[in-house]
């Protein structure tokens, strides 16, 4: 027993000695890394959580160098937009806001273009009366402060002094006196899906869509709604599962919002980004379409807000495509429009939205505050170095009558368009 105890003591002492040696080696390696590498992390995109700066030695560079020496391992990095050809256009200025929340939508009164609203997360509701130069916080008298902060207001529409707002958890708010007072409009518990878009049409008329593709029309400020399609998207797709649309069979998901053009036509993208759908007034059902590529759809829209002028599509990996105008003359057919690549160098960063100021000037926005500019109708884009000043992701871009334009993003980022800066770019 005495011999066993002595052996155990020796083994224990040896283990402690080995642990001390390992700790010393770890400290030496850590010190070596600290002297030769600097880790830089930059939140630059929704699709890529981090971007490595190529001009500084990084942890990846350290691992790549040592790994190559030991085992021949090679790691590749993605170029940032700042490394591609850039044009410096100071066509935007950041507006100081009293909030630091994510902004989702903006709208201006068609009868009084200087008067508008911005909505966002955590109950964000802002108002301007000077064309967006200054914004002040607003609240809803029929919602207490603790309740209001739990809402994420996602859409706002403002026509001829009448405004609608929708949000999550499901809520619909209406004002008929230019936003001076608001009433909460009850939503039926039998509503298929959650409200995804609201469009004010004036005179108490409005259209609302849901996350399942239902389209409703109201002529009395939302008190009663009439369905414009006979069935939801999942019912349509499962009924025509042999349509040949990839990803459509036995569809049980939802759609990524809906977009309405000037004529009342709608465009929607499946939540998985594997196909899209179109609908025009008078049709009983949505029409599904193949995306025509292996990349997932990130967002889609109408060229100049008009389905007759074409569609644009952004895909994962910073790819953008457009259809020729003739391809979308009739979206009521099951024929899939042909999309052609757009010349835009993104360095792999995702393009989240695009907006047409007019038929020539087009802007695209994305994660990390990136901005791209086109002056030929969207056929060719250049990276705008102004985006290096933007401390957040950009999600939405909208242009209004005249020269008013805004970009909305995370962390309370709101950019205001400055007219005349792009004429000689």
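^ Assign residues to that structure.
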């Amino acid at each position: 027993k005495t011999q066993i105890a002595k052996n155990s003591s020796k083994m224990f002492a040896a283990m402690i000695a080995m642990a001390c040696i390992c700790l010393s080696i770890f400290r030496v390696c850590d010190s070596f890394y600290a002297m030769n590498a600097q880790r830089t992390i930059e939140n630059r995109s929704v699709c890529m959580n981090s971007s490595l700066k190529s001009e500084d030695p990084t942890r990846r560079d350290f691992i790549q160098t040592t790994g190559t020496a030991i085992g021949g391992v090679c790691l590749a990095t993605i170029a940032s937009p700042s490394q591609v050809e850039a044009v410096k256009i100071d066509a935007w200025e950041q507006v100081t806001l009293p909030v630091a929340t994510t902004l989702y939508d903006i709208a201006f009164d068609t009868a009084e273009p200087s008067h508008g609203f911005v909505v966002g997360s955590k109950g964000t509701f802002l108002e301007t009366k000077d064309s967006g130069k200054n914004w002040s916080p607003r609240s809803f008298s029929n919602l207490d402060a603790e309740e209001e902060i739990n809402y994420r207001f996602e859409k706002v529409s403002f026509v001829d002094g009448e405004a609608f707002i929708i949000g999550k958890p499901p809520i619909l708010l209406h004002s008929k006196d230019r936003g001076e007072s608001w009433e909460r409009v009850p939503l039926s518990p039998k509503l298929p899906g959650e409200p995804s878009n609201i469009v004010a049409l004036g005179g108490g008329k409005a259209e609302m869509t849901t996350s399942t593709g239902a389209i409703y029309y109201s002529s009395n400020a939302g008190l009663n709604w009439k369905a414009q399609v006979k069935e939801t998207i999942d019912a349509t797709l499962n009924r025509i599962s042999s349509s040949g649309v990839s990803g459509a069979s036995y569809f049980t998901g939802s759609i990524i919002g809906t977009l309405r053009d000037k004529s009342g036509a709608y465009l929607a993208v499946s939540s998985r980004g594997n196909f899209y759908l179109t609908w025009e007034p008078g049709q009983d059902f949505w029409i599904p379409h193949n995306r025509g590529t292996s990349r997932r759809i990130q967002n889609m829209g109408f060229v100049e807000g008009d389905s007759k002028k074409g569609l644009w599509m952004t895909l994962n990996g910073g790819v953008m495509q457009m259809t020729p105008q003739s391809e979308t003359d009739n979206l009521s057919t099951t024929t899939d429009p042909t999309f052609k690549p757009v010349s835009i160098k993104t360095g792999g960063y995702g393009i989240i939205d695009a907006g047409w100021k007019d038929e020539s000037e087009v802007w695209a926005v994305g994660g990390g505050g990136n901005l791209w500019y086109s002056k030929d109708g969207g056929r060719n884009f250049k990276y705008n170095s102004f985006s290096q000043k933007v401390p957040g992701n950009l999600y939405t871009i909208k242009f209004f009558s005249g020269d008013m334009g805004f970009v909305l993003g995370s962390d309370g980022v709101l950019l205001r368009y400055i007219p005349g800066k792009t004429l000689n770019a």
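Helices lie at 2-36, 59-71, 145-148, 233-239.
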